[in-house]
Design goal:
By secondary structure, the chain is mainly α. It folds into two domains: about 50 residues; about 35 residues, no CATH class. The longest helix is centred in the middle third of the chain and has 15 residues. The chain is elongated, with a radius of gyration of 23 Å.
Amino acid sequence: MKTVISVKIDSEIKEAAQEVAKSAGLTLSALVNAYLRQVVATRRIEFYVAEPMSPHLESLIAEVEKDLLGGKASRAFEEVDEFLDDLKK
């Protein structure tokens, strides 16, 4: 048996969600049903909203990338002991 639910959603969120669903070949209804099935199966409600990067964080990341490209950062290590030995040098 199917039932209808009615919820109030910000129109911009609805349109964006419809685009995401469509890009995956789904309807918004199928997307909502899948999420609700996941909630029931896992007994968990999970929300994720990515935080926008601040200009300060973007500049820090740019510095690190510059250092990596310039060879100013340490090399990659396979094991912790290698890393600790390198620190002692």
